[in-house]
Amino acid sequence: MPQPSQELNENKFEELQTKVMGDVAGSMGLLMAYIGDRLNLYKTLAKLGVATSEKLAESTELEERYVLEWLSANASAGYVNYDSDSSSFSMSPEQTVIFAQEGHPACMQGFFQAVFSTYLDESKVTDVFRSGRGLPWSDHHSCLFCGTERFFRPLYAANLIENWLPSLEGTVAKLESGGKVADVGCGHGSSTILMAKAFPNSTFHGFDFHQPSIEHARSRAEDAGVANNTVFEVVTAKEFPGTEYDLVTIFDALHDMGDPVGASSHILSSLKDDGSFMVVEPAAGDSLEDNLHPLGLIYYAFSTMICTPASRAQEIGLALGAQAGEKRLSDVLRQGGFTRIRRASETPTNMVLEARP
Ligand SMILES: C[S@@+](CC[C@H](N)C(=O)[O-])C[C@H]1O[C@@H](n2cnc3c(N)ncnc32)[C@H](O)[C@@H]1O
User: Fold this and answer.
1) How far is the C-alpha of 50 from the C-alpha of 192, rounded, in Å?
2) Is 156 in the pocket of ligand 1 (CB under 6 A)?
3) What is the mean pLDDT of each run of 10 residues along the chain (357 residues)?
4) Would you say the pTM of this structure is higher than 0.85?
5) Is any atom of ligand 1 closer than 6 Å to the C-beta of 190?
6) In angstroms, what CA-CA distances link 268 with 147, 230, 317?
């Protein structure tokens, strides 16, 4: 076994041990949270207000002993509250938002689902570390596709129409009067459908090379009543059809592409002269040392498990990663032929770049 080159510092060691124990607790808490979502436990507890394990088990038609153990883990995590006098459990309004309020931007269940999917895919990823091959988006557990949609949709609902589109030059007016938009790498179409609802005079083309996602997007568009002004097609970012687009968007997908320069160049050729390309990417600094914090960990870890192998599975395989940063992303857009690039908007977790011909 290699010997540590320096003497072990007891304080630093204990500090790290405490931190790592917290991480282990967090990973088990996340698993409990995921199970609670799958078995409808949080939503039922929130509806009941206060419940013993017997009452919650009866209401969810689950085995009481398991429900009690799950509740105990959740009370230890601070995800539910426990009252020892009545041996009952409850959820505060804050706990309810995070664990049970589907569609709220702060509800974390879609996020938990996406994280959980990466655990399920661990052996596929360790294989590509050894082989150097890529791992296509389509080869991941289906939990990832649903988790991504569930987690991103509320974020887009809170920002896209109100903040991000108005931050682009003259785009909202074009969409109000009737424009043509391509949403590339649209996945389940959350962003496409939100835009189609907000701008009924415009036409929205959702493109993605993952067939099951496109089928899902079509049925979501039907349900949302926007089938008339949306079209979804299975095609790559370098080959999608159409010209004279007023706006092309990519939400959290440019860095997943094997050839983001080629995609940018194709997008440029598809845009009107006064069109805009809106790129939504994870928030990141330009260098590794800028990203050494919990959000950086989350993004780098997702990038290890999903984004980097997804890019490597495609031609060129540039592998930008989910923490590429504004400078690197702008270089890619410039290499694709765009000349005017600026940060148009941002949230704590995302940056929005506008690129123009
Ligand atoms: C992280 S998901 C984001 C999905 C969607 N934009 C959203 O925000 O919910 C990345 C998407 O990019 C798609 N994608 C990756 N590379 C692509 C390519 N070269 N051409 C078309 N779609 C691609 C994947 O199939 C996947 O749906």
Assistant:
1) 40
2) no
3) 75 97 97 98 98 98 98 98 98 98 93 94 97 95 90 94 97 98 97 98 98 97 98 98 98 98 98 98 97 97 98 98 98 98 97 98
4) yes
5) yes
6) 31, 21, 21
Is the beta carbon of 253 within 6 A of some atom in ligand 1? yes
Q: How far is the CA of 180 from the centre of ligand 1 (A)?
A: 20
Residue 124 burial class via C-beta count within 10 angstroms: exposed 0-12, middle 13-18, buried 19 and up? middle
Spacing, Cα 208 to ligand 1 middle (Å): 6
144 CA → ligand 1 middle, Å:
12
Q: Report the separation in Å between the CA atom of 250 and the middle of ligand 1, taken as the mean of its atom positions.
A: 8
Specify whether the CB–CB gap between 221 and 227 falls below 8 A.
yes
Atom 10 (ligand 1): residue with closest C-alpha?
Answer: 253
